[in-house]
Amino acid sequence: MISSGTVIGTYIALCLVKTSIPELIAFFHSFAGLVATLIGFENFRHMINASILDISAISMVCYTVDMGFTLDFVQLSLGATLSGLLGVHLIMTNGGADISIVISMLNSYSGCATAESGFMLSNLSLLFSVLGYGMAAGKAQHAVAAITKLLRKHGCNFRVAVNQVAGRLSGHMNVILGGALAPYDIVLEIDEINKDFRATDVSIVL
């Protein structure tokens, strides 16, 4: 940070004529005053962190409500940005000796996020798997069949969308899935399933 500030300050100084040096010095002193003022906010760091967390939580709750693509994207972006800001602020307000504790805490947050994604996946209602030649090339048909049976066993409406032009001939993906004993009644063509993508929770593309 010190190096970047030095480089920026030097560049600005070299771009100005000598008669503008007093104004430049006054400008730099204003930043020194700003930094001194920001030190006063140190006493409110917990309040700032709590406020960021609250706003981020509100944005994520709003994201769960269908408000249209644009508003949903804004809510998701706001939540992600505030989460990053909260992480930076938590680190910046701790001394060097406490950084190992902060790292452990942030790692625990990552674990919590992974666990919560598991809860989210267990509550999915409509899933699609869009299959192309990648499934045949990777010999993944047995894995797809196993995933299909497992999800349907847990009550998920799991369907398979097949690209008919993929493979060596038309219907190649259907033949491969049939050989892996995948339920044939859930295998649909892309044209048949396109209208349902808007209501889909997760799409797996191979």
From TrEMBL:
Domain NADP transhydrogenase beta-like, first and last residues per copy: 45-127, 130-205
GO MF annotations in UniProt: proton-translocating NAD(P)+ transhydrogenase activity
Keyword Endoplasmic reticulum: no
Membrane topology: Multi-pass membrane protein
Enzyme superclass (EC): translocase
Keyword Secreted: no
Enzyme Commission numbers on file: 7.1.1.1
GO CC terms in record: membrane
Record keywords: Membrane, NAD, NADP, Translocase, Transmembrane, Transmembrane helix
InterPro entries: DHS-like_NAD/FAD-binding_dom, PNTB-like
Reactions catalysed according to its record: NAD(+) + NADPH + H(+)(in) = NADH + NADP(+) + H(+)(out)
Protein's cellular compartments: Membrane
Transmembrane region(s): 24-41, 53-74, 86-106, 118-136
A Pfam family this chain is assigned to: PNTB
PANTHER family in alphabetical order: NAD(P) TRANSHYDROGENASE SUBUNIT BETA
Protein name: proton-translocating NAD(P)(+) transhydrogenase
Highest classification ranks of the organism: Eukaryota, Metamonada, Preaxostyla, Oxymonadida, Streblomastigidae
